[in-house]
Amino acid sequence: MASLRGLSRPARSLPLSQLSRQTYTAASIRCASSQADAGALNDLEDSTLTAPQLGPDEKKEFRPWKRAADRKHALPSGRYQYHPPKFNRGPLHPVQSPPSSDPIARDFVPGPFNLPRLKQTYHSTIASDLMTLAYTHVPPGTPKKEAPERLRSWDGSSPYHKNRGLRGPRGNPVLPLIERDITFTNVPAITEITIASYVPEAIKDPDHLLVARSVLLALTGTTPEITKTKANVVQWGIKTGERAGVKTTVYGNAAYEFLDRCVHLVFPRIKDWQGIRATTGDSSGNLSFGFTPDEVKLFPEVEVNYWMYPAKMLPGCRVFIKTSATSDRQARLLLQSFGVPFYGPVRN
Fold first, then answer.
1. Is the pLDDT of residue 38 over 60?
2. Spatial contact of 97 and 88, defined as CB atoms under 8 Å apart
3. Beta-carbon contacts of residue 229 (< 8 Å; ≥ 6 apart)
4. Where does the Large ribosomal subunit protein uL5 N-terminal domain start and stop, copy by copy (predicted)?
5. Is 129 helix (H, G, I), strand (E, B) or coil?
6. Cβ neighbour number for residue 300 with a 10 Å cutoff
7. Which residues are registered as beta bridge partners of 319?
């Protein structure tokens, strides 16, 4: 490799057939050999800075795109390079994709590079406490409770009712999740947090949208996406398809860090704040709450550069916490263990 690296760039651009066969053979043997002598270790001291520099004429003639176009044969493929499959064809297929933690995997994401304090506390203390608090002793031989009917059956008054699927509940076509008991296999945890900001003033003044996007970028470290209105509201002068908001979603460690800042830095500084209403939730373990513009400026990322944001343009935001819990009761239990207060009547 040292002999090839010491050649000039025009010489390296020549095909291998025009180079000396002796040089090519020696270079290939050196590359393939795993037992190098002591003298070969001196080649490690070579640097690309010692290679001869290109002159003005050589720079003009150095055109990599033309060299690639004139190449008659394709370059040799990496013989020892493994390419994971593009599609997973089932657990029984002879070719399996590597795990996402493998650097050669297609879905590999480097990291994590930090361990949030709140996440470490969850794994060391909170997870075991949740199993203890949610433990329900069932003596052996206790008959199982019959689950309520979630789907309605047909009464059979018509011959068309035969072999038809069950009907959904009246009023609300969305079926909530069935609450499962907390065990060591399904301890609730935070999966993602979405922060959204609705800025109707941005319809007339786009600068409000820019400020809202900058605030969410500072809070989460991710670039927010712009949202558009989905309905017409004549009283507010809103039309469908107008850009009037931003939102972003954080996952994993970033979600725990955001909740950690809310619990320990923002919530204690809100004056006369009772907490989050206990009626919040979508009956599937996802809770939400909001911050006013005066509360958003309490975040340290905004407070440290408060002069960057116009005071009258600072937006509020809504926070949606998605958990792996199967009911709002379990989600509240999880957030209460993190230090989030709730008030008001409780809705299971």
1. no
2. yes
3. 238, 239, 240, 241, 242, 244, 245
4. 186-239
5. helix
6. 12
7. 195, 289
Residue 141 CB: number of other CB atoms within 10 A?
5
> Region 173-193: what's the mean pLDDT?
88
Q: What share of the chain is helix, strand, coil (3-state, %, to 5)?
A: 35, 10, 50
By residue range, what is the domain housing residue 14? 1-32+51-76
Amino acid at site 231: A
DSSP state of 184: T
Nearest to 62 by CA among 5, 11, 1: 11
Q: Residue 81: what pLDDT?
A: 67
d(CA 341, CA 343): 7
Let me know if residue 98 belongs to a domain.
no
- What pLDDT is stored for residue 167 in this prediction? 86
Instruction: Show the DSSP H helices in 159-266 as ranges.
Output: 207-220, 253-261
Distance of alpha carbon 300 from alpha carbon 74, whole angstroms: 55
Give the DSSP letter string of 78-115: -TT-----SS---TTSSS-PPPTTSTTSTT--------
| Centroid of chain to Cα 96 | 24
Give pLDDT tens digits for 63-98: 888 888 888 887 776 666 677 888 889 999 998 999
Q: CB 329: neighbour CB atoms within 10 A?
A: 18
The rounded distance, in Å, linking the Cα atoms of 210 and 245 is 10
Between CA 206 and CA 187 the distance in angstroms is: 44
Q: Residue 281 is part of a domain; what is its CATH number? A: 3.30.1440.10
The DSSP result for 242-269, as a single string, is -EEEEEEEEETHHHHHHHHHIIIIIGGG
CA dihedral 307, 309, 311, 313 (to 10 degrees): 170
**Tokens coding 137:** 């002793």
The total number of residues written for the chain in this structure: 348
Return the residue matching tokens 């029984």: 92
Contact indicator for 196, 317 with CB cutoff of 8 Å:
yes
82 occurs within a structural domain? no
DSSP code for 4: H
Q: Residue 176: inside a domain, yes or no?
A: no
43 falls within a domain: no
